[in-house]
Design a protein that fits this description.
The chain has 313 residues and is an alpha+beta fold. The protein folds into 2 domains: 1-38; 45-147 and 160-307, Porin. It is 16% helix and 40% strand. The protein contains 3 helices and 14 strands. The protein has helices spanning 2-38, 270-275, 302-307, and strands at residues 63-71, 89-97, 102-109, 114-124, 134-144, 165-176, 181-192, 203-214, 219-228, 235-236, 239-240, 245-253, 256-263, 287-297. The chain has a 12-stranded antiparallel β-barrel. A two-stranded antiparallel sheet has the order 10-11. The longest helix is centred in the N-terminal third of the chain and has 37 residues, at 2-38. It is globular, with a radius of gyration of 27 Å. The termini are far apart.
Length: 313
């Protein structure tokens, strides 16, 4: 009897230990699954812009990006303008990451002598086993600094400073489907304080789509297209406008990305490239361009300050 009771106690202890180990294992598995669901998807795109428009990528907190965007004149301009080389436009910009989810930027554009500023906010972030998309909001404002037009003496209309202002609002919805393929949709509203005629709306609604296909470890193909839902027949200074279409190549070099593209948009602000592109692919009025940037760490991340490590970028 004593032997039976001893065996029963031993079996009970072993069973309790086994169940405890099983519970511990289940807790570990549950913890791992929870951590996997929190793990974010990174590098949906390799730069903060796909080509002309913004991507869902943000700069890290405390990181400053000096960005140069350049578009040559149209290839259809012939030898007289050296196929666009003599009629180039440039945008010089400074972008800064305030937090992991907020970045801002300012820039000067030689096209229409325009200054612009923007803010980009990351609202949702794609997770490997959770949230299926990354969602950001981008809002920009630009001011044209060219001289005011000479209005006819008989015209009593006053030229206001507000006539120079333009606004753009975008939702950036992206998903990284694999290590090689990423897609982004951009519902867009561009507001012009002044347009050529009352027959046009001051608001242009557009839907953009962009994508990236990685070919090698350092090279990827990119594309970007904006379809105007409204103001498709908008005139700018009497010129017909077209939907913006761009294709490009991203080349990663030492932690930086050099972007080379072919586009029918010479303007480098949202309001010009999305709603006021006056060149078309059909007519061969295309522009070769590039984006280059140099990144500086202005404020070191906390983990680097604690460890005494170097710059994060």
């Amino acid at each position: 009897m004593r032997q039976f009771l001893a065996s029963l106690c031993l079996l009970t202890l072993c069973s309790g230990s086994t169940f405890a180990q099983a519970d511990s294992l289940m807790d570990m598995l549950s913890g791992n699954i929870a951590e996997q669901k929190k793990e974010p998807v990174t590098n949906t795109f390799k730069a903060t812009r796909i080509i002309n428009g913004s991507s869902v990528e943000n700069l890290g907190a405390g990181v400053l990006d000096f960005r140069v965007s350049h578009r040559f004149g149209g290839l259809d301009q012939g030898l007289e303008n050296f196929y666009g080389l003599d009629n180039a436009t440039t945008r010089l910009g400074l972008d800064y990451g305030i937090t992991r989810w907020l970045m801002i930027g300012i820039a000067h554009n030689t096209f229409n002598k325009e200054n612009d500023g923007f803010a980009k906010v990351k609202i949702l972030r794609q997770r490997k086993h959770g949230m299926p998309i990354t969602l950001s909001y981008s809002g920009s404002i630009s001011v044209q600094t060219t001289p005011a037009p000479n209005l006819p003496a008989a015209d009593s209309t006053e030229w206001f400073f507000s006539n120079r202002l333009y606004y753009a609002n975008q939702l950036l919805i992206a998903r990284k489907f694999s290590d090689r393929i990423s897609l982004q949709i951009m519902p867009t509203l561009v507001h012009y304080n002044i347009v050529d005629s009352t027959k046009f709306s001051n608001n242009t609604v557009a839907i953009g789509i962009g994508g990236r296909i990685k070919l090698t470890k350092r090279i990827a193909l990119t594309g970007e297209y904006y379809y105007r839902v409204t103001n498709a027949d908008l005139l700018v200074s009497g010129q017909k406008t077209y939907n913006s279409l761009s294709i490009g190549v991203d080349i990663e070099t030492g932690g930086h990305v050099f972007q080379l593209m072919l586009t029918n948009s010479q303007g480098l602000t949202d309001r010009t490239s999305i709603g006021q592109t006056t060149d078309s692919w059909e007519k061969g009025a295309l522009h070769i361009g590039f984006n280059i940037s140099r990144v500086f760490t202005i404020v070191k991340p906390k983990e680097f300050r604690k460890s005494g490590g170097g710059a994060a970028w």
